[in-house]
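A quick aside before the break. I want you to see a complete sequence-to-structure record at least once, exactly as it would be stored in a machine-readable document. Don't worry about memorizing anything.
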Amino acid sequence: MAEILSQQEIDALLSALHNGELQASDVTEKREKVKVYDFKRAMRYSKEQLRSITRIHENFTRLLTSYLSAQLRTFVQIEIDLVDQVNYQEFIASIPSRTILNVFEVKPTDEKMVMEINPQVAYAILERLLGGQGDPSTRSGTLTEIETVLIQKIFTRAFEMYQEAWKTIENINVKWEAIESNPQFIQIASPNETVIIIALRTTIGEITGRMTLCLPHLIVEPVLPKLSTHQMLSFMSKTNIPQQDKLKQNLDTVDVPVIAEIGKATLQVSDLFNLQVGDVIGIETGKLQVKVGNSTRFLGNPGLQKGHYAVQIDQVINTEGDGL
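That is the input. The structure line, written in tokens, reads:
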């Protein structure tokens, strides 16, 4: 309760105001600022946690851009347009009534997440995969069975990369489950539950649209303590692999063709046309040339190893700049 002033104190205040020694604003009661809070739209995540989620998905967009560029053989650019927290009902209301929704199951939470793909973007992907120029203007209607399988294969592989993007925080397993065109048929959260949406501005050739990820709170909740900047940087420093080692790991999985040439022979076209079963072609004999790609890298002798044809390497052929 406010203190009651005596008559003498009141007179002193009035006198000070009259003489200009005191301003009226100096004696105005200070009121605390009131912040409006909408309980229907609970803010579960701090700005710091949203920044950490943004960094994770920036890594995912880089991986996804490289993957789609290689698959579609055209210019692809994917950038984060928005990261926000809304309730699930707002997310459903924000997307078109006819769109393409990929549903994924996330382990170990057993919850589901959704990626909404603007039809223009999806049709541009399909046009490129099917040999077109990526122009979706002539497309309309729902996906055919073949197109559904293609979308499934593309985004099943894409979300293996999503798992990689989360590895610095948590090991998750994302499995493609279904594809839908009507958002009303998908219920991965209650209407008022808070979800995180990540809008990705996607450009494929001349076509630009959005792909939007929706992460329910139950997926993110177990990793919230790890999403602070301090915890995230600490974990990343412990798991950081030197760039050279990363390159070596990636190169170890690259497939290269290896061919062993027994020899060569030169024939006239007339002799080639007259070849019959049982004819013998003389070849230039010598060391077998073992080619890696289009380059001869080894010389060796033919032989057998456990009943299979084999080559015993006798000599390594080094070329300028080789590390062999």
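Two observations worth writing down. The chain has a mean pLDDT of 82. The CA atoms of residues 47 and 136 lie 38 Å apart. We'll return to this after the break.
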